[in-house]
Specification:
By secondary structure, this protein is an alpha/beta fold. It has two domains: 146 residues, HAD superfamily/HAD-like (Rossmann fold, 3-Layer(aba) Sandwich); 210 residues, Calcium-transporting ATPase, transmembrane domain (Up-down Bundle). 57% of the residues lie in helices and 9% in strands. Strands 3-1-2-4-5-6 form a six-stranded mixed beta sheet, with helices on both faces. The chain is elongated, with a radius of gyration of 27 Å.
Amino acid sequence: MSPALVVLLRLGARSLRLHKLRSSLSILGVVFGVAAVVAMSSVGEGARRETLAQIAALGIDTVTLKPPAPPAGEPAATLPRAAAESLSRVIPEHKYRILSLLKKKDITAMTGDGVNDVPALTSAHVGIAMGSGASIAKDASDIILIDDNFKSIVDAMREGRIIYANIRRMLFYLLSTNAGEVLVAVGALLIGLPVPLVPVQILWINLVTDTSMVIPLGLEPGEKTIMNRQPNGPEAPILDKLLISRMVLIALAMACLTLGIYVIYSNLYGHEYGRTIAFSSLVVMQWVNAFCTRSDYESLFSRLKTFSAPFYIGLTAAVGLQMLALFGPLRDLLHITPVSIGDLVITGAIAFGTPILISEIHKFFSRHYFRLEHRENRSRLG
């Protein structure tokens, strides 16, 4: 049997005690013969060091199981500290037993390329087969590593985190904006006002404004520090308590401001006039909410430095269609009354600033006064 190279990434027991709700992500990589060299060494010493450093930044310890004698010119002491620990003469039974023990506390991913790896590949939470490996190993795995490059696993982690973050953004945006619309209707009924928005206006907001903004949020580029964060626990909610509290604050602000604007302008110029101003103000707040949602805890002003073409295309479409609704042939269909440009500017400015103020204050306290479960690691890469 050829020597085995095992790459084990896991969070230690101490980390598990300190971070009870965090996932203890483990990657157990076992490959044989030439594939062992391809998986870790073919990318070069510099690339390997960078990959192991990136893994360490995730809060994951690294242990290498390999033949006892290191390759010439590559003493174990020259590798990162977490990679210097090693075991040798690992047989398939050992791999399976080690994996079984890790699964009791950790989320495990197993890499392999041969027939002997199949039991461990199928037992792991995620089985990763080498592209150059046996067909049976590929069939037994969940993911096939086409280029046999361990760095591709780290790249996949990054893409997975970006997708997860974007799903959170989309969900946060839709729930906060729709909750605001519901609170507008419920609040008007509770205080005895006519409903500020007619059904066709609510439909317009949901189909035009929300759709134009939520789809680009799902295409947001990843944040620079996304790989410096601790992994989330497998049972952690997709929206944590802090995000839910912000969502409630944003929804309440939308409802209160919309109702206040409606009451003021209805008393001054009549019901239809107040309805148009309220409708316009609510749409502006939803545009701004999309800007604030581009990052969970990073300031809006910092996030503006990251350009997203889909977001600005969606924003342009939303603004253009709203102008068509206010000043174009859709006015009668949407029950829009001609209003003063000055009133639109004043209320638009208030509607623009309110969500930003609430969101930025909430993000500030979240960053500086609360210990988040996914708080960024102050790693050597940071």
